[in-house]
Amino acid sequence: MDLLGRLFAEDAPAPRVALFVDGPNVLRDEFDVDLDDLREAAAAVGQLTATRLYLDEHATPGLIQAAEARGFEVIVTSGDVDVRLAVDITRFAVEGRADVIAVASRDTDFKPALETANEYGCRTLAVAPGEFGRSDALRNAATERVTLEENEDDGPTLVGYDS
After folding, report:
1. pTM for this entry
2. CA-CA distance, 18 to 92, in Å (whole number)?
3. Mean pLDDT across the chain, nearest whole number?
4. Which of the two residues, 153 and 77, has the higher pLDDT score?
5. Residues 69-105: pLDDT tens digits?
6. Where are the domains of the chain?
7. pLDDT above 60 for 8
8. Phi, psi of 61 (to 5 degrees)
9. pLDDT class for 3, splitting at 50, 70, 90?
10. Distance in angstroms (rounded) separating the CA atoms of residues 65 and 118
11. Residue 4 — pLDDT band, cuts 50, 70, 90?
C-alpha cells in the first residue's frame, strides 16, 4: 500500500510528525510563542516522533533547560541555524523518517526544504508564530498551514534571546 493509502486507511496508525522549530526566528518577544503551543499545533496532524528546537549561540541556558523539560531535542549551532535545520528537514524526508514535516518559522529560506519534502511524499505543515510572523512563501510551499494565536494569558513565555 502506498503512503496515501496508509494515511487514509481506517486502521492506519497516526501519521508520524517531525517538528522543526527555528528558535531565533520564532522565540522572539514580538510573537509571544510558547513551545507547548508549537507542539500542540504539530500534534494536531499526527503523532510527534521528533521535536527539535534549533538555537544559536545567543540562546540563554534557561531557554535550553525549558525546552528540554518540554521534551524538545535542542540543537545549538554556532551562527545561523538555517542550514542545519534545512538539511535535517531534507534528511527526514529523503530517509522516510516522517509522514509529516512541520516547520515553525517565518524564514523563507526553508521553502526549498519543504518543496523537497513534498516531492518525497511527505505532507508539510508551516507553523507561523502569529499573523505578523507569517511567511507567505512557506505557507504556499506547505501542503498545510497554521498560524498560532497570540497568547491571551499573562503567564510566562519562553523568550530566550538577549535583546
Report:
1. 0.84
2. 8
3. 86
4. 77
5. 999 999 999 988 999 999 999 999 999 999 999 999 9
6. 14-147
7. no
8. -60, -35
9. low
10. 33
11. low
Residue 127 corresponds to which cell in the numbers above?
507553523
pLDDT tens digit string along 114-147?
A: 999 999 999 999 999 887 767 888 999 999 999 9
> Which residue from 109, 107, 110, 146 is spatially nearest to 26, judged by alpha carbons?
107
Angle (CA) 56-145-93 rounded to 5° is 65
- Edge-to-edge strand order for the sheet containing 47-56? 73-77, 47-56, 16-22, 100-104, 123-128, 144-147
Task: Report the 3 state secondary structure along the chain.
Answer: CCHHHHHHCCCCCCCEEEEEEEHHHHCCCCCCCCHHHHHHHHHCCCEEEEEEEEEECCECHHHHHHHHHCCCEEEEECCCCHHHHHHHHHHHHHCCCCCEEEEECCCHHHHHHHHHHHHCCCEEEEEECCHHHCCHHHHHHCCEEEECCCCCCCCCCCCCECC
CATH number given to 14-147: 3.40.50.1010
CB 21 within 8 Å of CB 35 = yes
